[in-house]
Amino acid sequence: MDYLAVVVALVVTASSIAIHLLARAKKAQPANLPPGSLGLPVIGQSLSLLRAMRGDGGSRWIQDRIDRYGPVSKLSLFGTPTVLLAGPAANKFMFFSSALSTRQPRSVQRILGENSILDLHGADHRRVRGALLEFLRPDMLKMYVGRIDGEVRRHLEENWAGRATVTVLPLMKRLTFDIISALLFGLERGGVRDALAGDFVRMIEGMWAIPANLPFTAFSRSLKASGRARRVLEGITREKKAKQLEHGKAASRNNDLITCLLSLRDDHGERLLTDEEIVDNAMVALIAGHDTSSILMTFMVRHLANDDATLAAMVQEHEEIARNKGDGEALTWEDLTKMKFTWRVAQETLRIVPPVFGNFRRALEDVEFDGYSIPKGWQVFWTANVTHMNASIFQEPTKFDPSRFENQTASAAPPCSFVAFGGGPRICPGIEFSRIETLVTMHHLVRQFRWKLCCKENTFVRDPMPSPPRGLPIEIERRTPP
């Protein structure tokens, strides 16, 4: 009986302590937190969301949550308390509020590094963003059109011409990787580039994962691949720094991104970025410039296979441009300005299948939105599809209609509704670079080839980027030149 009494006393004591701690935790939290649940410790709703993304792209999961709790709800993602916000007003709050800073999941931070533009704010963010924009200035981009044109021509000749079938997504990813390797890192084709390409694919696989560095997990494989990729970029940075010291002012900053970043100085003549900052942001540029463009072009190919009218209008636009050029003459910046219909097709593709599912911010202080409290340190999460597929914003949202973007100043869509590239001070700095890649590639693709889909399913999964079934295999044949 004495033993039983001790056990009962311990249980009562433990229960009392637990109730006391829960009461204190509840008292410490604001009374007007959003509706919802944080779920299990650490795991929260992470696995549920990841399963949904790999099932139907995740949009239904988000919409079900909005239907249940409304446009503001609390949950836990990747080990952190989170508030999901939905709608144009929420997007505007996310992009412009000074109380929020970008916040990537811990898995992304560990893979890309602590000094990436994705997680900087204030003066550090402005400094790094300004440095990246120095490389992405319009006058610099104009010089890269011809080099991108050469990479696209070579890629299509080596990987598309003479084949009966190709798989689009991996080929588009390799094309954009080769373009970025050449223009951003000055890395020529060969074994180093091939190894970096393989590590890059493995690096992506664990970016949205529970950050448990255990053997045989996607996150563990991504960390190892990230380490190898980082060592390659560190070696490239050292080589280019040595070359700059050797050649002095004669070394041109126009050659590639790393050379450009190494050459930048502040008002006191000191380097604007450290080597570590350059490597971390080169990793970000590798991902940002690779996945978005390759996925966009893959889904354009998928749509055009079943939309004869849109394809015919694109072919006509590109044939008119080609008629005014000499045989084999590279595209120019002026040629790209004439590809207005093609870019509208790209924008409509981005609206229906945005490459980036959503993104995170972190509350720098206690902040309120729509009557609900968001405590300091919590994540805030937004997704593009909530507004992109809203029938009250885009009429018949499932219908593919490039004319939506014909005259955007007259569009009825409220600000911060089309957010494929984000918005506000952190809008993607590589928009124009992505536009060049897309327009140049589609120019040569629609003029040289016809294609049919091998898979009829009009579906895709996210892992975390969208991917069509089997990578989109297609049957192709050469077009007869007009």
Automatic annotation (TrEMBL):
Tell me where on the tree of life, at the top rank, the source sits.
Eukaryota
Q: Which SUPFAM superfamilies match?
A: Cytochrome P450 (SSF48264)
Locate the residues binding heme.
428
Pathway assigned to this chain's UniProt record? Hormone biosynthesis; Plant hormone biosynthesis
CDD domains under this entry?
A: CYP90-like
- Which InterPro entries does the entry link to? Cyt_P450, Cyt_P450_CS, Cyt_P450_E_grp-I, Cyt_P450_sf
Q: Which PROSITE patterns does the record cross-reference, listed alphabetically?
A: CYTOCHROME_P450
Protein name as it appears in the record: Cytochrome P450 716B1
- Tell me the gene name: LOC125541514
